From TrEMBL:
ATP binds at residues 59, 63, 145, 153, 197, 236. This is Threonylcarbamoyl-AMP synthase. It comes from Listeria rocourtiae. GO terms for molecular function: ATP binding; double-stranded RNA binding; L-threonylcarbamoyladenylate synthase; tRNA binding. It comes from the Bacteria.
């Protein structure tokens, strides 16, 4: 399949939206930037169009998709009701990185969008290109992250091309995404609402608006089935195995040395603070300062993907504080590591 490429500029933006919207309306798949990560979109009312998303990504069909809209009024066409908590959240955080799960009106969306559930995740992204394209298309657009299933989500058009060139109908390039991690998913069909996936809007920010919520991600043990089906798969992972090393600087350095002695080529992905104290090595890269978790979020997926272009056989990273967007950073690192931890306390 030939993938049409657009690079959005001030001069060509309207023409780009018209052409890309036309493909979406015709039942084709088009990737576009949002403020979180790039998404791969298709008409959410068209079963065959949505099937192309699952096919292109190699995504399990029991994992429902988020429906993107340009305007809040659009959601009345497929949502049964909007609970008052959800209304408050929309008022405060839309457009923005918050996906709200609402009760679904039957027979308005393709059934494969929601994987047969009676609820639907909805979001209005805060990105001029996403909003422009959605407004011109005038249809609800189902859009998961535009990566091959299991890989880190794409934060640039180049990442999308790496995974999906030749597998989708179009890619709208418009630089890097701002947040760098996916939207927070909150289930507002429950009382109190429950955060199913931490993301761009923190639990603290949400609770400041609607009071206490439940955090599935925090409370879930490994054995329980997650409510957001997407959270049960190994995700966001680079090719080389990733492990989270929890201990002081000396312990971290020792783990690198031991692995190198075993013949591993070790990639090191750490904060600026830790990087300063480790012996320089070829595949060591900084994520930014611990004092700025939003920088770490912004860079994480790009840096994880970087290792796929190196000969590393193993990647070591460190745990980050679960405050604000740090909660989402750790959630993604945990998933990427598949729960692999090396802890100092257990060694000694
Ligand atoms: O930031 C984002 O949310 C990006 C951009 C493109 O908007 N999209 C994204 O979509 O991350 P995706 O498909 O990679 O993740 C959607 C998550 C999955 O964990 C899925 O299980 C959950 O949302 N989800 C969607 N609909 C749901 C529903 N009705 N009930 C529970 N979980 C749902
Ligand atoms: Mg995804």
């Amino acid at each position: 399949m030939e993938t049409k490429i657009w690079h959005v500029t001030k001069e060509n933006e309207i023409q780009t939206y018209l052409e890309a919207a036309k493909l979406l309306q015709a039942g084709e798949t088009v990737a576009f930037p949002t403020e979180t990560v790039y998404g791969i979109g298709a008409d959410a009312t068209n079963e065959q169009a949505v099937a192309k998303i699952y096919e292109a990504k190699g995504r399990p069909s029991d994992n429902p998709l988020i429906v993107h809209v340009a305007d809040q009024s659009q959601i009345h066409e497929f949502v049964q009701k909007i609970p008052s908590n959800a209304k408050k959240l929309m008022k405060e955080f839309w457009p923005g990185p918050l996906t709200i799960i609402l009760p679904l009106q039957p027979e308005r969306l393709a059934t494969n969008v929601t994987a047969g559930l009676d609820s639907v995740g909805v979001r209005m992204p805060e990105h001029p290109v996403a909003l422009g394209l959605l407004a011109v298309a005038g249809i609800p657009v189902a859009a998961p992250s535009a990566n091959q299933s299991g890989k880190p989500s794409p934060t640039s058009g180049e990442h999308v091309a790496e995974d999906l060139l030749g597998r989708i109908s179009g890619i709208v390039f418009a630089g890097k995404t701002g947040v760098g991690l996916e939207s927070t998913v909150i289930d507002c069909t429950l009382e109190p609402p429950a955060i199913l996936r931490p993301g761009g809007i923190s639990q603290e920010e949400i609770e400041a608006v609607i009071g206490p919520v439940i955090s599935e991600a925090k409370e879930m043990t490994q054995q329980e089935a997650p409510k957001a089906p997407g959270m049960k798969y190994t995700h966001y992972a680079p090719k080389a195995p990733l492990a989270i090393v929890k201990g002081d600087t000396t312990f971290f350095q020792k783990q690198i040395d031991l692995a190198e002695k075993r013949g591993e080529v070790v990639g090191v992905l750490v904060s600026d603070e830790l990087e300063e104290h480790l012996r320089k090595s070829e595949y060591m890269i900084g994520l930014g300062s611990k004092a700025h978790p939003e920088e770490i979020a912004y860079r994480l997926y790009d840096r994880l993907r970087y290792f796929d272009h190196t000969p590393v056989t193993l990647i070591y990273t460190e745990p980050f504080e679960k405050v604000g967007i740090g909660e989402a950073v750790m959630n993604r690192l945990d998933k990427a590591a598949g729960g692999r931890y090396i802890k100092q306390s257990e060694e000694n």
